[in-house]
What we know:
The protein is α/β, with parallel strands linked by helices. The chain contains 16 helices and eleven strands. The mean pLDDT is 97.
Amino acid sequence: MTKLKNDTLIRALLRQPTPYTPVWVMRQAGRYLPEYNQTRARAGNFLGLCKNPDYATEVTMQPLARYALDAAIVFSDILTIPDAMGLGLYFADGEGPKFERPLREEWEIRNLRVPDPSVHLRYVIDAVSQIRRALADEVPLIGFSGSPFTLACYMIEGGASADFRLVKTMLYQQPALLHHILDINSRAVIDYLNAQIEAGAQAVMIFDTWGGALADAAYREFSLAYLQRIIAGLKREHDGAIIPSIVFTKGGGLWLEDIAAIGCDGVGLDWTVNIGAARRRVGDRVALQGNLDPAVLFAEPAIIRGQVQQVLDAYGHGSGHIFNLGHGISQFTPPEHVATLVDAVHELSRAHH
C-alpha cells in the first residue's frame, strides 16, 4: 500500500477530518492553459492527445505544475467506450464530438459488444499507469467514465444534441432497445473503471452529463438505476486502499437524495444548487463536490475570492466537501484566475475545519 503525501481529497470523500477543503477543477487540463494548447498542436488534434499515453501524461501534469491542486484527473474523454465499440469517434472543429456510425438500426444495437479495456482501451489504461508514476504519490489520481445514459445519447444522436429527439423517441417508443444499450454500456463502464483502478486510479468519477435532460420517472429508470448498478460493480478496495466514487448528474438537483442513496461516496453538484441546502438534504450519507459557477472565473480576483467564500460558508463547518466548479472550466478562463481560486479555497476554508 502506497502512502499519499496529500490525501486530503480521499479523506474528504470518505468524510474524514481534513485541515482544509480540497480543490480540483473539472476539465483542469484544457484549452485555457497555453501549455496545453502547445502540446495539443504537437499531438495534431484532441484524439491524438487522448490516444498517446505520453501526451496524456504531459497534459494531466500541466495544471499540477501551475497550481496547488489536491488531485489529478486522467486526461481522456467520456466517449472512449463507444469509440472502442466501433462507432468511429471524431472531432469536428467548432462542433464537438461526433460519431461516424451512430446507432440507427436495431441490428447495430443488437451487435454491440462490451469492449475489453486491456485491448480496445489500452491507451487509457497505459496512461493511468504512466500518470500515476509521474505523480509520485503527491496527490491522488481520479479515473473517470461517462454514464451509460450519457454515452447512449451520443451513440444514438451521433453527437451533441439540443433536444435529444432520437434518444428520447427510442426511450418512449422502444424502451427495451434503449435498455439493451444501457445494459451493454453499464457492463463496459464497470470493466473500464475497474481497469483504471487496477492501473492506479485512486478515486473514480462518473459523468452523467445529460441525465438532467430526462423527466423524473425516466431519469430513475434509464439513468439512476444504471448508475447504482455501476457503483455496486466497482472495486471498493485496491492495493490496501479504499477507492471512493463520485457521481455527477448535471441538472440533477431534483434527485440528490436518490443519488446519495445508490452507494457512491460523493455527489457532484452543478452551480444551480445551493450546497448548504444540498448538505441538509443528504445529511452525512455522502460527501458533496462543487459547485462554483465556472463563469465566476471571468471576474476579477476579489470577486472570485468572495464567491469562493460564499460556497464555503454555504457548506458550513466540517469535512465532506470537495471544492470544484459546477461544470467544466471554460477555455476562455484567464489561467491566473485559477490560481486565485485554488489559493482562496486553501486559505479561506481552514476556518471551516
